[in-house]
Amino acid sequence: MKGTTRKALSATAIAGLFALAAPGIAGASGSDRDGHGHFGASHAVFVKTDGLAGNRIVAYDRAGDGALVRAGTYATGGNGGALNGAVVDHVASQGSLAFSSDRSLLFAVNAGSNSVSVFAVRGDHLDLRQVVESGGSFPVSIAVHGDLVYVLNAFNGASVAGYRIDGDHLRELRDSFRALGLTIPTDASQFTHTPGQVAFSPDGSQLIVTTKATTSSIDVFGVRPGGRLTGSPVINSESGTVPFAVTFDAFGHLVVANAGNNSVSTFTLNADSTLTLLSNVGTGQAATCWITQAQGVLYASNAGGPSESGIQVSPSGQLTLESTTTTDPGAVDAAATADGRFLYVQTGKLGVVDEFAVGTAGSLTEIGTVTVPGAAGGEGIVAS
């Protein structure tokens, strides 16, 4: 039974990520669009399966009460991948599925094929327009700002590679490749040591990469005119915190989910790419890795809770833990609708999405749950 506790929990950190019972991995085939015909980009949710024998995007129509109805399944033209040691989160990252609303394009990484798929979006319908090489090995996250796209690759020392959107295709941005120089293990600790996310600053002038346990740092590149990056990033060490995922709050602060001490932090992102810590709050949960927001409230997904932590943020960046809402096992990536009325949480153990209505002061009310075919262990969700 899922429920919400409207009180702050203990800030005691529970260090590290941990293994959960391994789920089965089911297959999905072809496109099974069922003809609902509910078009309109403002009422669709897309979920990536990370299927090892064929990656897919499952599309859902969103009803007025927030409930989801499956509208179709679309092959990406590539394979998903699974990091060693990963259980409920195959690629152990945030942002493996990204949506450009102004260009109506959806981008998906295919970790097992070293590629990125580009879909044209028409309401709940997807048209595969391109599959392009990711510029490295084992892509895990993708960031979009205007017509500029950067992909984060996790293997071979990790790297980022840039592209321009040209119509409904990606065009490689010359001289945009940047090696991160990380040492990625091959044993069962691999999923805690690959980089976690690539993200643009709100104005597109900086590119942020989290390194998780490899160096426990937040690396920030400057974005030059023309879209290329500075030669090397400013490395902001956050020893022991294991920075995993990021977002920006309504006031422009960088918000980071920290898996090492199960906390959320806010920072000022300075013009010189350094960070100034503003606030930190513990979730009192385990495996706090993913972060998003709805109606100005931050929501951290805790795979080991399993739960969503609701956190208020002040104009000065100060954080207050307000609520904990239980989810299905293995809460991972989450997405809120553009109007902030609904929050959808991928829970990777069973391969389902939990549906919530966002209420007063960020409280969450359960709507229901939908099973995503073939998505046990999958990550990547966007909502419009």
Summarize the topology.
Layout: E1 4-5, E2 44-48, E3 56-62, E4 68-75, E5 97-100, E6 105-110, E7 115-122, E8 125-133, E9 139-145, E10 148-153, E11 159-166, E12 169-172, E13 178-179, H1 190-193, E14 197-200, E15 206-210, E16 217-222, E17 234-237, E18 243-248, E19 254-258, E20 263-269, E21 275-282, E22 288-294, E23 297-302, E24 307-313, E25 319-326, E26 331-336, E27 342-347, E28 352-358, E29 364-371, E30 381-383
Antiparallel strand pairs: 1-25, 2-3, 2-30, 3-4, 5-6, 6-7, 7-8, 9-10, 10-11, 11-12, 11-13, 14-15, 15-16, 16-17, 18-19, 19-20, 20-21, 22-23, 23-24, 24-25, 26-27, 27-28, 28-29
Helix content: under 10%
Oligomer: single chain
Radius of gyration: 19 Å
Strand order in space, largest sheet: 1-25-24-23-22
The number of helical runs is 1
What's the CATH class, please? Mainly Beta
Return the domain count.
1
- The CA-CA distance between the termini, in Å, is 28 Å
Q: Mean pLDDT score, rounded? A: 90
Contiguous uncertain segments of 5+ residues: 3-41
CATH superfamily: YVTN repeat-like/Quinoprotein amine dehydrogenase
Going by CATH, the architecture would be 7 Propeller
Largest sheet: 5 strands, antiparallel
Q: Look at the helices and sheets and give the structural class.
A: mainly beta
